Amino acid sequence: MALIVSITALCGICMVLLVFWFERTLFYNHLVSDLERYIEEYHSAQYAMSIPRGDITFYKLPSTDHALLPEAFRYYPEGNFEVLSGPGAHSLIVRNRAPWVYVLAQDQSEFERLELLAGAGVVFGFLLINGLGYWLSRYIASQVLLPVMSLASAVKADPGSGRSPGFNPDDYSKDEVGDLAQAVQGYADQVADLLERERQFTADVSHELRTPMMVIQAASDVLSESTGDNPAQQRVLSRIERAIKDMQQQIALYLQLARDPGESQSDDDCTLSEAANAAKQLWKSRADEQAIALNCVCEPGASDVRVSQVLISAVLNNLLHNALNHTQAGVIAIEVNGGSIAVRDTGSGIDPGVAAHIFERGVRSPQGPGSRYGLGLSISKRICDHQGWTLNAQPNSPKGTIFTLTV
Question: What is the pLDDT of residue 202?
């Protein structure tokens, strides 16, 4: 609607300017040419005169005596003028040739009437076009835009599966909008089926793996009782038990990811401070082996929001694992402040060339000791997206990286 108003207003202004251009340029040029011709023709006459010719009247009179002129035309300086006198309008051309003054007056009353009619036509056309434009825009909105907006609102109202009762393609007319609704519904159903199959597959695999893991755990317990004090066997058994524990954690993680985000909270949840302290205890022995200080600082006022222990632990474990892999010496700090946890290290840092892609699977850095970032950050990012958390990375000063998780 605004576009129609702008275009019609611009056209109206152009028409008015065109009328003025015709009046100022063509008419006045014609009158000036006529006046110069009259001056040349009557230059030798030594008396005042008034010569009417149609709607044009030529005057020659002394500079000091304008009595021959109508009162409205008297004593104008040299130039081109438009004189309005009563209901009439005249174009007046004045030239001084001492001791004479030459005046050419043309009756413009008819032209002024046509000019007013043209102005009224412009205003009427402006109102008519805008009225039609308003009606047309309302019609287009009701027939095209409104159904599209309604379709967009219905899709936004059901972003998960597209199977909401409020989104029914049969409710739309059998036209382009109806075809679009059918296409969106079909695509949404395909996405919903794919997500459902993924959740079901993850849940089934994780559930089926529990049975063999329990068998392995039982066999490990039997071996633990029969190994005695043999150091070599104890080291092997320790590796088996550590692998079993990692597998159990991964199975629990995949089971949580197979659920909807709103269902991920359970009885084994924890606060951010509890998760940070648990992660420190888990990784402290490895940090001590590498002679790296591992600190945990919980600022006053830390959020008491409870989150899934399995998911928050998986993210922190991946972040700490990466921090220990990329830190040769220095300090790794876990900082809890408000609703966020930051893992700050003094390691080799992130290559700026891949900083924007570190959460993608298998990203490699073209240089540096940690040339591959692996799958840990990708999994952590997926967990955060699943839970509606945010995870970002930024450089630490003077070196290293800070990963910040906000719930």
Answer: 72
Lowest mean pLDDT among 238-252, 254-268, 333-347: 254-268
Distance, CA of 302 to CA of 300 (rounded, Å): 6
pLDDT the model gives residue 294: 92
Nearest alpha-carbon partner for 144 in 155, 136, 133, 156: 136
Fold of 176-257: Helix Hairpins (1.10.287)
Between helix 231-257 and helix 376-387 the angle, nearest 10°, is: 40
pLDDT, average across residues 99-119 = 81
Of 331, 318, 236, which is closest to residue 288 (Cα–Cα)?
331
Query: What is the per-residue pLDDT for 358?
Result: 82
Cα 392 to Cα 321, 378, 399, distances in angstroms: 17, 12, 17
CB atoms within 10 A of CB 351: 17
Q: Exposed, middle or buried, 135 (CB in 10 Å: 0-12/13-18/19+)?
A: exposed
Q: Does the pLDDT at position 38 exceed 70?
A: yes
Band (pLDDT 50/70/90 cuts) for residue 368 is very low
Distances (CA, A) of 307 to 216, 264, 267, 277: 30, 8, 10, 14
Nearest CA among 297, 289, 357 for reference residue 324: 289
Q: Which fold has domain 265-406?
A: Heat Shock Protein 90 (3.30.565)
